[in-house]
Amino acid sequence: MNRAFAAAPRRVATILRKETVGGFLLVGAAVIALVVANSPLRTSYEKLRDTVVGYAPWHLDLTVGQWASDGLLAVFFFLVGLELKREVVDGELRAPRTAVIPVLAAVGGVAVPALIYLAVNRGGQNAHGWAIPTATDIAFAVAVLAVVGSRLPASLRLFLLTLAVVDDLIAIVIIAVVYTEHLAWTPLLLALLPIAVFAFLTHRWANWFARNAIAAWVFLLPLGVAAWALVHASGIHATIAGVLLGFATPVFRGSDHGPGDDGLAGQFEHRFRPLSAGFAVPVFAFFSAGVALGGSGPLSQTFTDPVVIGIAAGLLLGKPIGIFGTTWLTVRFTRARLGPGVRWVDVFGVSVLAGIGFTVSLLVAELTFRADAAGLDHAKIAILAASTTAALLAGTLLAARNRRH
Fold first, then answer.
1. Which of 113, 115, 238, 356 would staple 387 via disulfide (CB 3.0–4.6 Å)?
2. pLDDT score of 218 more than 80
3. pLDDT for res 11
4. Are 171 and 180 a contacting pair, CB within 8 Å?
């Protein structure tokens, strides 16, 4: 009995490492949030989400919703940084011909939606919302791909992952430059210190941290928390700290590595994946997706708003045009090539999937329409509607391609 009870957490962790399970938890949390936010429980939901918790002198007096988006999501981005580091050092992204495609595609996927939004809202008072449709929600997009694309080429998932991360990093830079009223350089520079110490320890004693799981919690977690807090205090979105810490983790345990050596990055990814998929990302989705759909006036008025049209067109048209078009041009005029087994119809499916803006798009919308409640409601409805449509269209196409593969 005791032995079975002790083995239960390991079985749960094994289940949570499956992306399909994490995808269902993520989508389920978002659906529950939408239902609760449009039910009699809405007031209680908003009160919980807006409850402030934290130490004000350290700029950590955040709402529960902010702790979910800025704090918990950093765990997911840490895993993203680990996976990308492994691919860059010892995976498909070692070849510049392969790496250059998703990076340039991400740039195209940011530029074209912004231009479409500006074209729709040119001369209007809401033109400053051009950055809203530029983001791709990496968590939702990867979850959809995990659910419908289990047989699709691994290089296609890597293409989406790299594209979405670069896309979000661009969006975070946009937030820091365009929407941050004050950038504090002192905490930003101080954040480099715990990140440097983290990198030194993980490189110097990689074998020890790989063998001793508790050592990472005792010695590395405080450094990660310090880096996160300093990046947050600087005014830059705190999840960038997770990416930097992931990239600071070594892929190999030492110079004597060989085939099959999972390395410290692989060990960390194995350990922290259940925490991300089973808790961090679903909780984040629950507090991010709760939008009241009936509080923005008649639907006819909502969907004729240039803000709604610009956001929807940017996500549903701009993303596929920008990503697919840039990818085709890159392959056509350079020596870069698509990953093994990837066809152009697969690239188009992922380009449509990248139209799931959701998380960062909602964040940019809140920054854009701080003093305009109606504009914020319209922007959120556009993001939810366009993201849902993109998920359904891409999911249908990629599911068909999955059967072919």
1. 356
2. yes
3. 58
4. no
Q: What is the pLDDT of residues 35-67, one digit of tens each?
A: 998 899 999 998 999 999 988 887 788 889 889
Cβ atoms of 210 and 253 closer than 8 Å: yes
Q: How many residues does the chain have?
A: 405
End-to-end CA distance of the chain: 44
Check whether 295 has a pLDDT greater than 60: no
- Sequence-separated (6 or more) residues with CB below 8 Å from residue 132: 117, 311, 314, 357, 361, 364, 365, 368, 379, 383
Query: What letter represents residue 165's amino acid?
Result: V
**Which pLDDT value is given to residue 294?**
64
Q: What is the DSSP string of 140-167?
A: HHHHHHHHH-TTS-HHHHHHHHHHHHHH
Cβ atoms of 79 and 246 within 8 Å: the answer is yes
Query: Residue 395 pLDDT > 50, yes or no?
Result: yes
Nearest 5°: phi and psi at 62?
-110, 155
Q: Which amino acid is at 313?
A: A
pLDDT in tens, 226-237: 999 999 888 877
Q: State both tokens at 374.
A: 């109606």
Residue type for position 355: G
CA distance 5 to 189: 46
Location of structure tokens 């939408």: 34
In whole angstroms, what separates CA 101 from the centre of its chain?
Answer: 19
Determine the 3-state secondary structure of 322 from DSSP. Answer: helix
CA distances from 277 to 15, 18, 169, 271 (A): 10, 9, 21, 11
Whole-number pLDDT of residue 6: 46
Neighbours of 111 (CB within 10 A): 15
> Which stretches does DSSP call E strand in 81-184?
none
What angle, rounded to 10 degrees, do the helices at 263-275 and 73-90 form?
Answer: 150
76-133-131 Cα angle (round to 5): 95
Does the pLDDT value for residue 155 go beyond 50? Answer: yes
Let me know: does 273 contact 211? Beta carbons within 8 Å: no
Token pair 């997009």 is at which residue?
Answer: 141
For 379, the token pair is 């922007």
pTM over 0.85: no
